[in-house]
Amino acid sequence: MTVLVRDLRPDVPADAEGFARVRRLALPYMLSTPESVRHTAARMRPDARFRPLVAEEDGEIIGTAQVHLIPDSTEPGQGALNVYVRPDRTGRGAGRLLVRVAEEYLTELGATRLLAWALDAPANRAFAERHGYRPGRSAHFLRLDLAHGTLPPPPKTPPGVELRTAADFAADPRPLFELDAETLLDEPGDVDTELSDYEAWVAEVWHHPLLDRELTAVACAGGRPVAFTAAYTDGGTRYSTAMTGTARAHRGRGLAKLAKTHSLHRARAAGLTEAFTGNDTGNGPMLAINSWLGYEYCAREVRYVRELG
Predict the structure, then answer these.
(1) 15, 116, 224, 304: which one has the fewest Cβ atoms less than 10 Å from its Cβ?
(2) The sheet that has 296-307: what strands, in order across it?
(3) Running DSSP on this structure, what letter comes out for residue 235?
(4) pTM recorded for the entire structure
């Protein structure tokens, strides 16, 4: 059987579904749908030079790669490739071919540093290290059983704070963009990024098909958003936290916990049964909030880095 690598055809239903299926099987802790695959392919910023790849065996998609530059990086030359192969189709060379094509592409674009996530499992780590990548920071995937677990009651809303949803900002989401940009500056990571392009944010983030504006909770003070938790849903029963953050001037008041708790209570009331989130291993405050909410550890991911030249 021959494995070949080609570009994803996002407008072909079988391609979008195959890409999403591989992601769901290889990384079940993150939401992926054909709609989200098409959206990312169409809406990622042009300067990211995004190139989604698939590995195909006898007409079946068995592996995927998301390959792009990191345009919001404060340091040029940063590239990313995230490669996933169906767990029941490993050992056929799909991952090796995807990495080769992705690296050649990023090198042609001038990337000097490549970053990739890999699940913390012996085979995944050995694969990354064989290809010249060294391990760096790590992150946890956490799961909460909304159907049978017990959610703590929402904390008391502090005086002067009002709880709203992202849907309340439909006419003008710029205040949410500004809050997102501020909190991103303090998010743990291997690459320092600055979010400055509002129109790109609207296209990529605000109009993302997984973003559930009714379940995205926003704490406001003085009429301005000061804390939020962004909720993704897959159209079924699964919920995921895309980002939680608080403006620097309002930290230490429990507003992130307040927003996330309200969002989860609404999610359960809406019939969602399973919630996922992810945290950098060094993000103690957010890990403490998620532990308080009842999330349990389900997997670990390691960021691998390869310096070129």
Answers:
(1) 224
(2) 3-7, 51-57, 60-69, 78-85, 113-119, 296-307, 134-145, 274-280, 238-246, 224-233, 217-221, 161-165
(3) S
(4) 0.93
Selection from 246, 22, 41, 31 nearest residue 141 by Cα: 31
SS3 call for 272: coil
Domains and CATH numbers, the chain: 3-111 (3.40.630.30), 144-300 (3.40.630.30)
* 169 closest CA partner among 211, 107, 213, 128: 213
Burial status of residue 189 (CB atoms within 10 A of its CB: 0-12, 13-18, 19 or more): middle
User: Residue 266: which residues within 8 A CB-CB, separation 6 or more?
Assistant: 214, 215, 217
User: CA 78 to CA 70: how far, in whole Å?
Assistant: 6
Do β-strands 78-85 and 113-119 pair in parallel, antiparallel, or remain unpaired?
parallel
Chain center to CA of 62 = 21
The tokens describing 86, both together, are: 């169906």
Q: Check residue 90 and give left, alpha or beta (phi > 0: left; psi -120 to 50: alpha).
A: beta
- Span 33-54, mean pLDDT? 96
Amino acid letter, 116: A
- Which of these ranges, 3-7, 199-203, 305-309, has the smallest mean pLDDT? 305-309
191 — pLDDT class (breaks 50, 70, 90) = low
Tell me how far apart the terminal alpha carbons of the chain are, to the nearest angstrom: 35
Q: What is the C-alpha separation between 225 and 176, in angstroms, rounded?
A: 7
What gap in Å lies between CA 181 and CA 183, rounded to an integer? 6
In which residue are the tokens 């029963």 written? 237
| Percent of the chain whose pLDDT exceeds 90 | 91
